[in-house]
């Protein structure tokens, strides 16, 4: 008696994505206890949908990389601004001390 693998479409699409990402059909089928023929049929059936999903994921990953680069640039600029602000605060305090020494009545 043949054993039928019943699973939701999402699971099927995940297995198809594994095959499309470079794994051999036979290896993936053996790993999940399927017939390679069944998995090949799923690949034919869901290939277009999974290709679209994989393309979207690649685009999202690329966008995340770009955003990470922008964030790193902003972090460097922020650190430089904080350093400059600290130097200016120090300079202002030194000048206030000098003014207080020359004019003790000044606030």
UniProtKB/TrEMBL annotation:
UniProt xrefs under Gene3D superfamilies: Homeodomain-like
Question: Which molecular-function annotation in GO is an example for this chain?
Answer: transposase activity
Listed GO biological process terms? DNA transposition
Q: Coiled-coil ranges per the record? A: 43-91
- UniProt keyword annotation of Coiled coil present: yes
- Which terms are listed as keywords in the entry? Coiled coil
User: Is the keyword Coiled coil in the record?
Assistant: yes
What name does this protein carry?
Answer: Transposase
């Amino acid at each position: 008696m043949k054993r039928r693998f019943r699973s939701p479409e999402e699971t099927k699409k995940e297995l198809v994505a594994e095959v499309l990402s470079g794994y051999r059909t036979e290896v993936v089928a053996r790993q999940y206890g399927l017939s390679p023929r069944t998995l090949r049929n799923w690949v034919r059936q869901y290939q277009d949908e999974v290709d679209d999903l994989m393309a979207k994921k690649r685009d999202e990953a690329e966008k995340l990389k770009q955003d990470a680069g922008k964030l790193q640039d902003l972090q460097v600029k922020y650190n430089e601004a904080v350093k400059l602000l600290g130097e200016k605060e120090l300079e202002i305090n030194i000048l206030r001390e000098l003014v207080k020494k020359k004019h003790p009545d000044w606030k």
